[in-house]
Amino acid sequence: MSILKVSIRQIKAARALLSWSQEDLAKRAAVSVPTVKRLESEDGELGGREDTVQKLRAAFDSAGIEFLGGSKGTGVRLRK
Question: pTM for the full model?
Answer without folding.
Answer: 0.87
